Amino acid sequence: MSFTTILFFTFVVIVGIQAVYYLIFLFSFSIKRPETQIKKHVPVSVIICAKNEAENLKQNLPLVLNQNYSNFEVVLVNDSSSDETLEVMKQFKTNYGNVKLVDVKSIEAFWGNKKYALTLGIKASKHDFLVFTDADCKPRSNKWLAHISSKFSNQKAIVLGYGAYAKKHFSLLNQLIRFETVMTALQYFSYANLGIPYMGVGRNMAYRKELFFNNNGFNSHMTIKSGDDDLFINEIADTKNTAICTSKESFTISESKSSFKDWIIQKRRHVSTASLYKTKHKFLLGVFYTSQLLFWVLGILLFILSYDWIWIVMLITLRFIVQLLSFGFTAKKLNEINLIFLAPFLELFLITTQLSIFIANLISTPKHWK
User: Fold this and answer.
1) What positions does the domain Glycosyltransferase 2-like occupy (predicted)?
2) pLDDT in tens, the chain (370 residues)
3) Which residues have C-beta within 8 Å of that of residue 368, sequence separation ≥ 6?
4) What is the domain count for the chain?
5) Whole domain around residue 128: which residue ranges?
6) In whole angstroms, what is the distance from residue 370 CA to residue 351 CA?
7) What separation in angstroms does the CA of 298 have from each of 116, 159, 293, 304, 343?
8) Which residue of 128, 137, 196, 297 pairs with 252 in a disulfide if CB–CB is 3.0 to 4.6 A?
């Protein structure tokens, strides 16, 4: 058997793995209709941890404070900011009766560690149901809190929401960031939908306070600068206690990074936590990303080696059809429909970037959350 024939059969296996993964793990969520039933309002504490976010707080905090919700407080955590963040928070506290302020002073043991600041904010909150977002996020509607909190029940103590990025015209970086965000959401929503939740995003998620204290907070990974969202959810989420919220009114929206350098720094921070996931999650995610990388490498290599192009085109077409079905339905659900036909090109760009980030993280580890 020739070398190219071995490559071809390997490529067939890789395409099969990708097709099975998309159809079994991802497609069931992509076609699931979001539930929009609003339940009775439970008291919630919204926790926002901010470091040097004065301008974002001025723009976005009014949209949080003016939610159409009967009983909630907003806990603002100033994480040793060097700008006017604390003064802005004090002004909001003066103007709104449901704002609580926690001013975190920098100490050597937890310098640059968002988890320490968040822990103080959680301890200061008065309600059992906690909703988390970031200072650079704004709710998509005034029913954000109502939709997120409606997923809590006697069994469901964790709610995973979607944090979108605002669209920017004629920006490849913005399209790439939004594509990666949709793909990440497709995965963590799909896994949760199948009863194997593995992460959430701090821009939009919620859980009961008792889960935090029963788990001893972030103690098991306090020395890791990232992971207040995904590592914590990876620890506490299980088959029965996790719900997802994908109604468009429940989204939060952030401004994406404006330079590739800033985005790479952000992604390095996020990627650095994946090695600490549970073994089953690392295995499943590893199979997907490895087969995704090999799909492109082997497909391009077989074309270069002039293997029977008809078979290669057929296999590539099959894989893209399966991918676009899953991604397309999800993109429509998450209000990103204009990314559907750019998906193959953005995927190739993203894989190249992720590979470089993986290599960079092997050389050095990101140090701080900001």
Assistant:
1) 45-210
2) 788 899 999 999 999 999 999 998 888 888 887 776 777 899 999 999 999 999 999 999 999 999 999 999 999 999 989 999 999 999 999 999 999 999 998 765 555 578 999 999 999 999 999 999 999 999 999 999 999 999 999 999 999 999 999 999 889 999 999 999 999 999 999 999 999 999 999 999 999 999 999 999 999 888 887 889 999 999 999 999 999 999 999 999 999 988 888 888 777 766 778 888 999 999 999 999 999 999 999 999 998 988 888 999 999 999 999 999 999 999 999 999 999 989 999 999 899 887 777 776 666 655 554 5
3) 112, 113, 225
4) 2
5) 44-174+193-256
6) 25
7) 45, 39, 9, 10, 19
8) 137
- Kindly state whether residues 203 and 285 are assigned to the same domain: no
Find out whether 199 and 233 touch, Cβ atoms under 8 Å: yes
Q: Pick the closest to residue 128 from 45, 216, 206, 38 (CA basis).
A: 45
- How far is Cα 250 from Cα 204, in angstroms, rounded to an integer? 9
Residues 212, 70 share a domain: yes
- The pair of structure tokens assigned to 203 is 């821009």
Q: 101: which strand partners?
A: 76
Token pair, residue 351, equals 């894989």
On whether both 207 and 81 belong to a single domain, the answer is yes
- Please give the Cα distance from 75 to 80 (Å, whole number): 15
Q: Do 60 and 105 belong together in one domain?
A: yes
Asked if residues 323 and 22 have their Cβ atoms less than 8 Å apart, the reply is yes
Question: Which residue has tokens 């939709």?
Answer: 147
Q: Are residues 14 and 51 in the same domain?
A: no
How does DSSP classify residue 277? S
Q: How do the residues of the chain divide into helix, strand and coil, expressed in percent and rounded to 5? A: 55, 10, 30
Tokens linked to 124? 């200061």
What residue type is assigned to position 304 of the chain?
I
Residue 187 forms part of a structural domain = no
What separation in angstroms does the CA of 22 have from each of 35, 188, 214, 319, 352? 23, 13, 35, 9, 21
How far are the Cα atoms of 14, 16, 17, 22, 360 from residue 287, in angstroms, in the given order? 10, 12, 8, 12, 21
